[in-house]
């Protein structure tokens, strides 16, 4: 669980470089949804209408937090919580 004041890192591309930053603020449950309207069977290339919804299912990513991070190299940026890894926890 990420908290304000934690030191976090973010992997930049596939080159093995990491950005280090400080968590300044967390907006809980900012992105995503836990459920969505879904259609179980539809032929490829056909239009999907709202009356064709069969069931309500879970989404792949669920609800995520928005985190404001002060990066050591680029400044302020909002990130999604799963993108970050906690390096050092705030006490």
Describe this structure in words.
There is one protein chain. With about 90 residues, this protein is mainly beta. The protein has one domain (about 5-90). The chain has no helices and 7 strands. It has strands spanning about 5-10, 15-30, 35-40, 55-60, 65-70, 75-80, 85-90. The protein has a 5-stranded antiparallel β-sheet, with no helix packed on it. It has a two-stranded antiparallel ribbon with strand order 3-4. Strand 5 and strand 6 form a beta hairpin. The model has no long low-confidence stretch (mean pLDDT about 85).
How would you summarize what this structure contains?
This protein is an all-beta fold. It has strands at residues 7-12, 17-32, 35-38, 55-58, 63-71, 75-80, 85-88. It has one domain (7-88).
Features:
91 residues; mainly beta; two-stranded antiparallel sheet
